[in-house]
Amino acid sequence: MLIDEKGIRTDGRKWNELRPIKMEVGVLKNADGSCYIEFGKNKIMVAVYGPKEVHPRHMALSDRCLLRCRYHMSPFSTTTRKNPAPSRREIEISKVLREALEPSLILEDYPRTAIDVFVEILQSDGGSRCAGITAASVALADAGINMRDLVSAVAVGKVDGKIVLDLNDVEDKEGEADMPVAIMPNLNRVTLFQFEGILTKEEFEKAYELALKSVKKIYKIQREALYEKYFEGEVKVE
Amino acid sequence: MVKRKYVVPGDLIVEGDLRASTNTFKTGNRIYSLRVGLAEIGNGSVRVIPLSGTYIPRVGDVVVGEVIDISAFAWQLDINSCFYGYLTAQSVFGRGYSPSKYNLSNKFKIGDLLLAKIQSFDRTRDPMLSISGPGLGPIERGVVIKVNAMKVPRLIGKKGSMIRLIESATKCKVILGQNGVIVVSGEPDGVSKAIEIIRLVESKAHLAELNRMVKELIDSWGVRDADR
Known about the structure:
The complex is a heterodimer.
Chain A: E1 21-25, E2 33-39, E3 42-53, E4 66-73, H1 88-101, E5 113-123, H2 128-142, E6 152-159, E7 162-165, H3 169-174, E8 177-184, E9 189-193, E10 196-197, H4 201-230
Parallel strand pairs in A: 4-5
Antiparallel strand pairs in A: 1-2, 2-3, 3-5, 6-7, 6-8, 8-9, 8-10
Helix pairs in contact in A: 1-2, 2-4
Chain B: E1 3-7, E2 12-15, E3 19-20, E4 24-27, E5 30-33, E6 37-42, E7 45-50, E8 62-70, E9 74-78, E10 84-88, H1 89-93, H2 104-107, E11 113-122, E12 125-130, E13 137-139, E14 143-146, H3 152-156, H4 161-170, E15 173-176, E16 181-185, H5 188-203, H6 210-227
Parallel strand pairs in B: 3-7, 10-12
Antiparallel strand pairs in B: 1-6, 2-5, 4-5, 6-7, 8-9, 8-11, 9-10, 11-12, 11-13, 14-16, 15-16
């Protein structure tokens, strides 16, 4: 039983409720841009370095910037120790993350350079790739890289026969469907779409609508975090 | 009348028949911001003054660079950017340069600081520097500090008002590179004061009342000096 008779989930949320989100920009002094996010029990640190010269030299692209992402889970991020060596899953998520961020960046503005994005999961509780994309996008804005839009991400899915928003670890593992979605909210473009499990057409549409709506809430928090650092919260977010 | 607005990447700045200037992009007649910063709308165009980012060279910029390598034909300079600057021997010694006649390290050694202008730069090649021009050339002495290159315009001020204010208040010489490298020289007391002002400007660069804050800081020293 992941949803009780009153419709309350394992962590006390309703079906369409997000976990509490906290974001802070510019937490790392040595990085060009950084962001720390708490997405429910997820705790993630993102650091961005660049644009900088490419090492090894032969990897440089003559017409655009090379974007490199590393998604990594700390050994202490899970209940049992995780081997710190990059797993198959982490390598895949690194690629997925890069491809979710790439459309938002204007990489042609920085030819023959590289941008490194490090996403370090300090504590994980399901939906860390979405939280990672959300934080990485803010860190890239903090680093001052030309971007068309921020990227906000959230997962929707199906648990106990019901569509739910923002799956946590148990719901992710025991649920019937999981669908992480990343969107550029101003341009209304999808940059990441993954889907695992089975949904009917109606369920899918309901889930997708829910994701579109919830991403706007996450986007507002991203903006607030950037405003807090750059404008010292002196101006209200519109 | 110029209208100002705080923006983050992806923000719609304005809709209408305006020209999209620096750090903005246009789709249809909607102009969006590419950076975190201050959007300025006026005179038929829209631009964003960024508040973060690393230095990207532009032709005509005057930068402070440190010699990090010497080859037979050029000095390689660290210009605080993702690209290295190159100062060719020909541009220093003239057309008649030949590697057998001159030794580059006799002119500028590794570690020397130079004030140089970016002569040419495009996406295919690293920036070429030049030291011919008034005030350009080796920097003999001073304290080197680095600030975010995006804050340099505020340090210069309107027609150089801020830099003149710093120089007259501290009796120091301030050499300002567009790449965010600054060399301050003068009496030790003045240098530390100048650095304090520069750090203040850097941290409050986005605020409108910056000039007043700097003047207040300078005035507070006046009181302290009178006490002594």
